[in-house]
Specification:
Layout: E1 15-16, H1 28-33, E2 37-44, E3 47-53, E4 61-67, E5 70-73, E6 93-96, E7 105-109, E8 116-120, E9 123-127, E10 135-142, E11 147-153, E12 165-171, E13 178-182, E14 187-193, E15 198-204, E16 215-220, E17 228-235, E18 241-247, E19 250-255, E20 262-267, E21 270-273, E22 293-297, E23 300-307, E24 310-317, E25 322-326, E26 332-339, E27 342-349, E28 352-359, E29 366-371, E30 386-392, E31 395-402, E32 409-410, E33 419-423, H2 437-443, E34 448-453, H3 462-465, H4 475-489, E35 498-503, H5 505-516, E36 522-526, H6 532-538, H7 546-550, H8 556-559, E37 572-575, H9 586-593
Parallel strand pairs: 1-32, 33-34, 33-35, 35-36, 36-37
Antiparallel strand pairs: 2-3, 3-4, 4-5, 6-7, 7-8, 8-9, 10-11, 11-12, 12-13, 14-15, 15-16, 16-17, 18-19, 19-20, 20-21, 22-23, 23-24, 24-25, 26-27, 27-28, 28-29, 30-31, 31-34
Helix pairs in contact: 4-5
């Protein structure tokens, strides 16, 4: 983040002004540009690698390495390590281990042409494959001699009716030759080499999304030939299995067969449930290459644990079936990686910028590698999230609530603040308590903000996630309205001054709430969905059958806000990217003219 002088604060005490009119040091630049985006951590011994998204370079991502105390950029502009498999990408690079004297070799996917490249510090990257952007690679893994990847091959012409084809492949990093290891399923993910000639991988088929049902397979793996002697380990159409990881000769994975993504282990004797817990040890695989847990030592895992939407970090002892908390100073934990004797993660906090830190799992102390830094405004300006739970149609619902806060100003006596409800994307996603300058833009001006984990969100188990099946546009809307009523009943907001905002699937919930409910006085749709039928026809392969579970075919028209645009009788602002492949621009354009 670029440095700024500290702004805000009131040495003589706060003045009184109407809520929503407060002067604020959180300006539009800070809210729109934000800070460095950190992700996809990988480690090679004590060497650490990660992707850094830079707002000041038009959002370009770059690959960074921390080695022997020195931080280096491995992908100079215009190179942009980012995969487009499933459009969301993920697993855009992998590392072939090095030695104390020689750094590991690093291979990445370049966004512009989706080819595989080898990064070379101090020199231009070397291209490995020779395809075009119709052939994409993601979820890269090093198998000891080659790069394993998910390949997504698109028709050469957009007019061709054929669907993109996904396969599990092996890439020769010297010649660029690509060998198909497995094909036949609609989707693949998580190739994991055992080191003993076996390969684990995930696959699933339409109409499932990876949080609905996947299968975990293990096969014999030899260079240059397809997998052989494939065994089905776990999973099915009603069981979501994610993130297989080898721990010696056994394979650890997360499965929601018991209602929550719990940890299991498989070997030739069968499957063992490591830990029974009404909490989530994994999440929805929107992006490839996600790491919710790591093998820290033989029989010992470090995992992110989510209970009722709250995250923590735990050490899991496989033999004892016991999880003990790590006292780390974060509210969220992303992209875990073993780093020497510690664990690296993207640590988020409610009142400080996110950072890449290495956590000593014995003490909880952190060494900051990237990000973080001082707040660009006074601490008294920042509104930290509060957890709220409230009743709704199908049971309790949850949200992160940010009350108005500004160290220099307070509201008028007896007045209640306006409320902005934020609806997260997905809809199989979740809200976060982490510091967001977009949220602080409003709270520092005297607005309250509620980030709602409506039914269908993750972090609460499979049953909560399935509340939205058949109920999209109803359950989520009811939950957002219930949140407004709850906060109003407790005197925390003014129900006559409410707005709602969301992007993508959250944009759909926003438009549905404006069309089907009478709780909001304004709305903002960021690349939102107005026409469910058109979305199913126009969106990309990964989500082309997503709506099947969320809305019954007979309800498609009735649940599409574009068919009820005449009911929207308040101001709505629309935002849309012209190159959006997930929610095509016609969705917003059609809503605008409806």
């Amino acid at each position: 983040m670029t440095s700024r002088s500290t702004r805000g604060g009131a040495p003589d005490g706060p003045e009184r002004r109407p809520f929503g009119t407060w002067p604020s040091p959180v300006d539009a630049e800070l809210a729109s540009v934000g800070e460095l985006r950190l992700g996809e951590i990988r480690a090679d011994g004590s060497d650490l690698y990660w992707i850094e998204g830079r707002p000041d370079e038009a959002g370009r991502s770059t690959l960074m390495r921390r080695r022997h105390g020195e931080t280096q950029e491995l992908t100079p502009a215009p190179f942009n390590p980012r995969s487009r498999v499933h459009e969301y990408g993920g697993g855009a690079f992998c590392v072939a281990p090095g030695t104390d004297d020689t750094a590991g070799r690093v291979f990445f996917v370049h966004f512009a042409d989706q080819n595989l490249y080898e990064a070379r510090h101090g020199d231009e990257p070397r291209r490995v494959t020779d395809g075009d952007s119709d052939e994409r690679f993601g979820d890269l893994q090093w198998d000891g001699a080659h790069v394993l990847a998910v390949r997504e091959s698109h028709p050469a012409s957009p007019d061709e009716a054929a669907e993109a084809r996904n396969q599990l492949v092996q890439i020769d990093v010297e010649t660029g030759a690509v060998t198909v290891l497995h094909t036949g399923h609609d989707f693949y993910a998580s190739p994991r080499q055992s080191g003993h000639g076996r390969l684990a991988f995930l696959a699933w088929d339409h109409p499932n999304m990876p949080w609905d049902g996947t299968q975990l397979f293990v096969g014999d793996h030899a260079p240059g030939v397809a997998l052989a002697n494939i065994t089905t380990v776990a999973g099915g159409v009603t069981e979501s299995v994610v993130q297989p990881e080898w721990d010696g000769d056994s394979l650890v994975f997360a499965s929601d067969a018991g209602g929550y993504w719990n940890l299991f282990a498989w070997d030739e004797t069968g499957i063992a449930h490591i830990l029974r817990d009404d909490a989530e040890y994994a999440g929805p695989a929107w992006g490839l290459g996600s790491h919710w847990y790591v093998v820290a030592a033989p029989g010992l895992l470090v995992a992110r644990r989510v209970e009722n939407g709250r995250q923590g970090l735990v050490i899991v002892d496989r033999e004892r079936g016991f999880a003990s908390p790590v006292d780390a100073p974060y509210d969220s934990f992303g992209s875990l990686a073993r780093a020497g004797s510690g664990v690296a993660c993207i640590g988020g906090r409610a009142n400080a910028p996110s950072e890449l830190g290495i956590i000593d799992i014995a003490t909880g102390t952190v060494v900051v590698v990237a990000g973080g830094g001082t707040l660009p405004v006074s601490e008294g300006v920042v509104s930290a999230a509060e957890r709220i739970t409230f009743p709704t149609t199908l049971g309790d619902c949850h949200a992160w609530f940010h009350p108005p806060r500004n160290g220099a100003v307070q509201g008028l006596p007896g007045e209640r603040p306006p409320l902005l409800v934020i609806t997260h994307g997905g809809p199989t996603g979740s809200a976060s308590p982490d510091l967001s300058w977009r949220t602080q833009y409003y709270t520092s001006r005297g607005w309250a903000v509620a980030n709602v984990d409506y039914g269908g969100s993750t972090g609460y188990g499979r049953a909560y996630r399935q509340r939205l099946e058949g109920g999209w546009g109803v359950v989520d809307v009811d939950d957002c309205v219930a949140c407004v009523r709850h906060l109003a009943a407790h005197g925390r907001v003014d129900p006559a001054r409410t707005a709602i905002r969301g992007g993508s699937a959250g944009g759909y919930t926003t438009l549905a709430a404006l069309a089907f409910a009478d709780a909001f006085r304004a709305g903002a749709s960021h690349y939102g969905i107005g026409d469910l039928k058109a979305l199913a026809n126009d969106t990309h392969k990964f989500e082309s059958r997503y709506v099947d579970r969320l809305v019954a075919a007979k309800d498609i028209e009735a649940r599409s806000p574009i068919r009820h645009a005449d009911r929207i009788d308040c101001p709505v602002i629309f935002f849309q990217g012209t190159e959006d492949r997930i929610v095509p621009p016609n969705q917003t354009e059609d809503m605008r003219v409806a």
